[in-house]
Amino acid sequence: MRLRACAALLVFLSACATSAPSPREHTSRNPRIANLQRAAKLPWTDGGRCVVREASQPWPVLAERCFAALDHDRVQFNDRTGRCAVASAGAAALGIGLCVLAAPEIVAGAVIVLGVVVVGVVIKEALDAYELRGSSSDEVEPAPRTKPASQESSENRKPKPEPTGQDWFPPAPTDPVERERRPECRPVPVPHRGGNDPHDDCADLLPQNSFPGWDVLVNGKQFDALVLVTRTLWDVKTDNFGKHNLHSQQFFARVKLPELQREKRLAEACGYKFVVGVRSAAHKVALERLDNTLTVVVMDWC
Predict the structure, then answer these.
(1) Average pLDDT of the chain?
(2) DSSP class of residue 149?
(3) pTM of this prediction?
């Protein structure tokens, strides 16, 4: 009986996901920002980490995946339409609550929050990141723009080179805004890996760090810090490099180099700069000798 009830609930949620949104849902054409703004009105026990992670999904999917992170002691669900009671007949009350929360349309009085809601820190930082980027409410791909013929005469146009047969892949987007639209390039604050407090403290104290207290996930890689103002991702190295002899220093630098080069490629593919922070001038010199394209900075704040 419980299995049939859950199946009925899932069918109902699927139906809700395809129903037309209310006019208020159209206030933001970017579904990710709209989801973050809607979730900001609810209390979350994890600071909103699940919401930020799932924000690109349709709201019913987000609600289902993050329902467990909701502060259930402060939320009451009212099935004002009666549809959820039918869809989850025989299921636990949890099913009705999820059904009400997942409805794409906002029904007045359906979700009641007890007390004052303080926006989850991760949700707030994600919304602030959008505001700083200037993508306030629209991330829909624009229609291609065609320049009027009068702007450029045919004499001044440079002929496009013919394909050589070596163009196996389309060129990567060069505009940072275009790259930013790729979901994997959107910076997502995530918890520090833990286990190394001095390292985390050093990253948190980085000047202009946009997300102190958090790592930042970009392009599948967890970076130690992000400075949004300069679009720079950081990998912080707090090893006591100077205590080793010259041979050991060179060996250590060579071992770490491939991962640093990979991080640099991942960051630049999304339009970010990449900087390695080290604690000693000797570490900086060793890395730059191995790869002079790396930007290495001695961190005088830690």
Answers:
(1) 74
(2) G
(3) 0.44
**Cα–Cα distance, 81 to 67 (Å, whole number):** 21
98-150 pLDDT per residue, tens = 777 777 666 666 777 877 777 888 888 888 877 766 543 334 333 334 444 44
How far is it, in rounded angstroms, from Cα 122 to Cα 135? 18
Distances (CA, A) of 302 to 242, 271, 288: 15, 28, 21
Kindly state the tokens that stand for 282: 């000797």
Closest by CA to 267, choosing from 302, 198, 220, is: 220
Structure tokens at 183: 């979901």
Q: What is the DSSP string of 53-93?
A: HHTTS-HHHHHHHHGGGB-GGGEEE--SSSHHHHHTTTS-H
Q: How far apart are CA 242 and CA 254, in angstroms?
A: 15
User: For the chain, how big is the Rg over CA atoms in Å?
Assistant: 25
- Among candidate residues 127, 122, 92, the one with its CA nearest the CA of residue 5: 92
In single-letter form, the type of residue at position 125 comes to: E
Residue ranges with strand state E in the chain: 75-77, 111-113, 188-191, 214-218, 221-223, 225-227, 232-236, 273-278, 295-298
Question: Residue 200: how many CB atoms within 10 A of its CB?
Answer: 21
**Which residue's structure tokens are 């139906």?**
15
